[in-house]
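G., the chain you wanted modeled:
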Amino acid sequence: MADFVNWTMSLQIPIIYLTICITIPSMALYIAQIVTIVRHKQFHNSFFALFVMRAITDLLGVLGNFYGYRLPCIIGAVLYQIYSQFPNWMLAIPLFLSGHTFQANNLVTILILLNRLTAIAMPTKHEKMWRKLLPFLTIFVYCMPILTCWPVFKMNAIILMAAPNSTIDGNFAISEAGDAPYIHYNTYISTVFSVIFMILCVLINIATFVAYKLHMIKADINGNTFDDIERKLLIYALATFLGHLLFASIFLIAIFINMIDPTIMVVVLVYYPLVMDTGTVVLSSWLLLWASGNFRQQLAKDFGIIRINKAQTIRVGAQEGARNRPNSGDACAYLRQSRAQIRHSEHFLVLKLLVPRDAVSHQISSEKQELAETMPGATAPTME
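Predicted structure as tokens:
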């Protein structure tokens, strides 16, 4: 077992870099999705409101983990002088955010599953009911976890160096002095919420499955079909539930391992960021692009993905037009010829406007007579 623990510890930094590579694009996508939902009224409905609610908790949870764990593990030598000046409550923020966002995330996931259940069971009253409940639910989701997590600010936070005797490795970790009572408190509270979350979600999923079957039976009788968008959103809710279930199970695993052998708890800590990011930010953000085609198209329009393609098309067209233009010598010759024609036309027009027609006719008649006397058989020009 000791060899396995040592091997896992050797993967700590590579796993952190892996999570950074998959999490940063997902967080950027999450933020872009929030902006798109806020900007366009067509997405101002209960499902997308709950999506934004969960996106905020996911982002805060990941940022808190960066602040308290990942950055000190990879650039601790740079951050140590800064973190060592922080007051106790600032060092307790990562632990508070981990507990608060985890509990809030579970609550929003339950609400999303309920939202899909009511969309099937009562489609006519569904949206109106949720619009009335959303303000209260928002306050409940963000404020209720504060009641259970605020005691962690009492912790006696300390900074533990990864290699105290090393002059090269300056990485560190934020921990708690003594027996770490508040860290254990936060872990047990999260474990209790995990159990409640799993039970409620399983019951809601069973009810949703029954409601879906009944709806399909009625649809077959009445000749109606289930909306493809609603079906995809239902699949999205179930898939993201599985991701959050994976994240919630890590606390149960931690309690179980701690009961068997506390020395291997470090294994859970090493894999915690990867499980958290995959089950929350990555799955929830990217899967929505599949679930809603209209949202995907609007997101592309808002952030210039289509404009880039159009700009490339215009650029190619301009290059093709440049190839079809004449060379510089032909262009100059054509320009001189055009100018000569213009000058000739202008000269004739001015002459025609300024000289009276009778005078011109008299002049032409005189020229005819002179030409006939000097050169019999020749003809003089006529006036057009």
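The chain has a mean pLDDT of 81.

Shout if anything looks off.
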